[in-house]
């Protein structure tokens, strides 16, 4: 009975209706907002984990690649007879001060696999035979530098990775191996990798493609096999690279990002537990519930008070308000009656005056903004425009009353945009476009569009135009720097590898095979040492110009690092490529730089190989071309060596 009596009041019904509407609306908005926020937060978390994995893999690739390059250069400088190598082994190892800073252990091994000398000698490895080690057999058979798979070393069974390079005598015969060991649990960059954390509970793992955990940031595991229950890890072993959700090895639902490495068949896995990644949205939802309760407690009494004021006859006031809205009434509304009606009239008059003042203030603010703000009617006539907007459309002073779409042309997404495209489309938060005004002046703009009363006869369009020229120019500069070498202006290794991957994928569609050319400069170090680094940089720039001028426009030239360059020749065929390589070799040999009365120059050892559909990836074809460079150096340098593609075992005679 009491409830029925309470609902018998129209005011109480209105209050109940408002409360229910507020509650339902808030729940809908909360649900939709929570879903959208979770989706956006999930994408942000995935992007963050992917970025960390990519940065860490690039850093590890750089550190391993730099150590491989330094060790290879030292190994090349050790050209001597096998007798001299045995006799001077201990002195040679002790003299490699630079290598001692890069490796936990340094070893000189003869051609039979016996350790001749080591540093530090406390490891007590001298005299041991390591011919059974994977790194020794690979170097001895391939005659190229390698980075080994993780293995358990002879020194106190510490897990390690060996970077090894062949040593040749003056006739180019293999006489030994120079090896640098990196302990996986030592005080080095591998420990820095293990200590990296994502948030509070996220971690990194480093895993070899053979299924061995190299380092584990959460458990500290080293040299243990990967479990098969994790689908992401299983896919990563097969070459997968990307971000997915899975259950981690320690039993947590996590976001996992895999980044394959370039220098070695390893991959980095960044793991961030979903419980931590999505914690902010949980806190927001909890806080929103309390805010919702507070809003309901505030809205219900306010609605009750307001509706009691509005229940008196309002017809006269409604008519005066309509007259004021239409502009036929110039004086403030004035209604006789009770206090409630007079209060509403006063509020209406105050709001009207305040809105008028705010409109004038808003127009003043818009007038000094750098962004152009226009309001158009459905026909495109300009009903309001600030000074910046008039400058965009090419009008010096006032552009009111003119047709916006007749004064400018707008192009975006590769097509022109006309009045109907804006009129019938949705609101636009941000559209990157090019605006050309009637004076043929172009602007790169960021355009925002808001519809007012869309679909009605008095529809209006509000445009906000921002000059986006500087931002786009900065984006182009950053994009160029990310793919080019700053010294020579050639492509860098990353862009070169991407082009090589693309061509390998298209190899089956080309009538003529594409060719990879690696150029390794000979005797470049003396130029730097004797002429200075500035002279060396000048020589590299002139060589880059020589390579660029020697190839076709469709070819790709890159500086891969230091004094190593690469050239990709699409659909060239091996005979023309060999002629081009000889031309480049001769050009390099002929290039001389005069400095302080001395003449400086270098020669080039060039390796060539074809790209085939059987190549599994860029590492395989790069290794063949690199083999050609090493053979050229072993023959005395300044030579071009073609490395043939191994025969197909599935073909007759293969």
Report on the architecture of this protein.
Among the domains are: 78-183, PAS domain (Beta-Lactamase, 2-Layer Sandwich); 369-473, 2-Layer Sandwich (Beta-Lactamase), CATH 3.30.450.20; 484-642, Reverse transcriptase/Diguanylate cyclase domain (Alpha-Beta Plaits), CATH 3.30.70. The mean pLDDT is 81. It is of the alpha+beta class. Strand 13 and strand 14 form a beta hairpin. The strands form five sheets. Strands 14-13-19-18-17-15-16 form a seven-stranded antiparallel beta sheet. Strands 1, 2, 3, 4, 5 and 6 form a six-stranded antiparallel beta sheet that branches. It is built from 20 helices and 26 strands.
Write the layout of secondary structure elements.
Blueprint: H1 2-7, H2 10-77, H3 82-95, H4 97-102, E1 105-110, E2 115-119, H5 134-142, E3 146-147, E4 151-152, E5 159-168, E6 174-183, H6 189-195, E7 203-208, E8 212-216, E9 224-225, H7 231-237, E10 242-247, E11 253-260, E12 266-273, H8 274-277, H9 279-310, H10 315-326, H11 339-368, E13 372-377, E14 382-385, H12 387-393, H13 404-407, E15 408-412, E16 415-417, H14 419-424, E17 428-437, E18 442-452, E19 460-467, H15 469-483, H16 493-505, E20 515-522, H17 524-531, H18 533-550, E21 556-561, E22 564-569, H19 574-590, E23 593-595, E24 598-600, E25 603-610, H20 618-634, E26 639-642
Parallel strand pairs: 25-26
Antiparallel strand pairs: 1-2, 1-6, 3-5, 4-5, 5-6, 7-8, 7-12, 8-9, 10-11, 11-12, 13-14, 13-19, 15-16, 15-17, 17-18, 18-19, 20-22, 20-25, 21-22, 23-24
